[in-house]
Every structure is written in structure tokens, then in C-alpha cells.
Amino acid sequence: MSPTGQNRGAPLLEVRGLAVGFRRDGGGTPLRAVDGVSFELREGETLGLVGESGCGKSVTALSMLRLLPSPPSVREAGGVLWRGRDLLSMPVEELRRVRGGKIGMVFQEPMSALSPLHRIGDQLVETALLHLDIGKREARALALDWLRKVGLPDAEQRMDDLPHQLSGGMRQRVMLAMAMLPEPEILLADEPTTALDVTVQAQIFELLAKLRGGKTAVLLITHDMGVVWEVCDRVHVMYAGTIVERGRREDVFARPSHPYTRGLLAAMPSLHRRAARLPDIPGHPPAPGEWPPGCRFAPRCPRATDRCRSALPAWRDAPGDGHCAACHHPHEEIPT
């Protein structure tokens, strides 16, 4: 499986300076979880948003479709433009037609996304009736067709099952069928294989590549750099609520500029690596409200200087088309 998307025309989706916080009990200043995130998504490409758990990836995706409860969440700045229209200020009824129709989403845990009280077929039919101009009989036929497309065993019988009667891999296939059934322009996939074994993970990603057919733009949220290499065209590396490196997949992997990106890549398993254990990044990402001054990665970075600990880094160009990193001491200046 290899990426096929390219920069094609105007962006379908533009995230501009998105900042999202959460108010604690009793109000006060929100704790910011996403801080000035910006990226674009074009037709047919797959963009990987990668980073450790707690870096703000899922909050970014859920905020884009206004799926976070408010309160406690609050948008503090920025916008999310779909074909030039801001989803964050769009009337609720119009947003409901876009969400799940023009923009689909596959969640990290399908058991919490599917209704436990309704049969699989009924949930797919409801999605079809909501977003497509078809009748109930046609909607049921389309739902069954998509369950077969995603490789669900005994699809016709499974239409009458409840979610708890399916395995994790089966539920994720149902979620993928539900997201792709309306033929969305954009698919947001938030850690879609986290709870699955490696064999089923590979099947889901093969399926995702096959189903998007070169037209649907995909935002893939993951912590797995191996998955990014397999399926993404571009990659944005996220740490402590902000993007720290961005560029084409091949440029970021060949010449990582930010020490955090280098740490993630170093932790990838390899058949050619003979070390007894994989290197890790010491420590953990800071929680919202606990971001250090200066570079947020400085407390974990072996190359951090006084400047890193006191001043926010500016974006600096790196080798490659559109490749850059927010780092005072990018890769090319670090002895190896």
C-alpha cells in the first residue's frame, strides 16, 4: 500500500490557528489543549497527524466537527474552513448535514460510537436516509453493499446484530462502512485501529486505502510512525498542543529536523536494528496548563539550551518541499 495523493487544487479543508481550551469546575481561565494548530487538506491526499497520547490530536479532530461538549470545552481562537465556510460558526442544522455526510469520522473506539441499543443495519440505514436522497429499501441495499465492501463476514446476517455481538475488528469495519457510505469528501480517522491486533490493523488500513479511491481526503490521527510511512502523503508532528514539524512524508522520514520527530522515528521497530531494546523519549508530554516557557519539548530534549528553555522557537525551513520545523537547533545543526 502506498500513498497516492498529491497537492491538487484548492484545499477542501483549512484549519487556521485553532486554539481550544477546557474550563475547570468553577470557571476561570481555560486550560488550553490545542494551541494555534494550522493545516490544509486537499482532495485525494492523506495527511498524518502524529504524536504521543496527550498531545492534542484527538481534541483537534473532535473540535473541527464541534463534537466536544461545551462547556467545558471552549474555542479560544481560529477557524475550520470547509470549502471556504467556517464549520465552527455554521448553523447547527447545516453542520449536521455536513458532519457524517460531506465529512465522515471513524472513532478510536467503535463501541462508544455505535448505539448499543440499535441493530447494525438500522444504524447504517439511518445514516443513508439522513445524508442521501434515497428511500428506505434502497438505503438498506446500500448499507448491505457497504458491509460487504468492508469485508464484514456474513454481512446480511450481521445487519440484524447489535454492536456487542461483534468483535472489535468487525465493529471497526461497521464504523468504516458508516463513514464511507455517503461518499464523503473528507474522512477523519482518529486512531482507527488502536484496540485491534496487528493483523486486523493491516486489514483496516488496506481497506481504507482501497475505499477512498483517490478522491476522499483523509486526516489520519495516529501515534504510529510506521502507519504514517505506509499510508500518508504528508505528515504533521504534534507535541503539547501545537505542530512542531511538517512536510512531505519522505522528507520528514529522511531528514527529521525536530528532536521530537527524531525520537519518534528512533522508537520505530526495525528488522535491521540489533539493539536489545528500542530507544525511548524520557518523560512524558506536559499536561494542559503545565506547558513550560520556551520550547515545550525542552524538558525532554537532550540538546536543549538556555535559549530553548526561555524562548519559543520560530519556524525554520528544512530540506524538502514545504518541510519545516519549530526548533532553535534543527537536525542539520546537531552532530550525529
How would you explain this protein's 3D organization?
The structure is a single chain. With 336 residues, the protein is an alpha/beta fold. It has a single domain (13-102, 182-333), classed as 3-Layer(aba) Sandwich (Rossmann fold), CATH 3.40.50. It has helices at 57-64, 92-98, 110-113, 120-131, 136-149, 155-158, 168-180, 198-212, 225-231, 249-254, 259-266, 306-310, and strands at 13-24, 27-41, 46-50, 73-82, 85-86, 103-106, 186-190, 217-222, 234-239, 242-248, 315-317, 324-326. The chain has an 8-stranded mixed sheet, with helices on both faces. Helix 4 packs across helix 5. Mean pLDDT is 88; it is low at 1-7.
What would a concise description of this structure say?
This protein has 336 residues and is an alpha/beta fold. The strands form 2 sheets. It has an 8-stranded mixed beta sheet, sandwiched between helices. It is globular and about 65 Å long.
Annotate the secondary structure layout.
Elements: E1 13-24, E2 27-41, E3 46-50, H1 57-64, E4 73-82, E5 85-86, H2 92-98, E6 103-106, H3 110-113, H4 120-131, H5 136-149, H6 155-158, H7 168-180, E7 186-190, H8 198-212, E8 217-222, H9 225-231, E9 234-239, E10 242-248, H10 249-254, H11 259-266, H12 306-310, E11 315-317, E12 324-326
Parallel strand pairs: 3-8, 3-9, 6-7, 7-8
Antiparallel strand pairs: 1-2, 1-4, 4-5, 9-10, 10-12, 11-12
Helix pairs in contact: 4-5, 5-7, 7-8
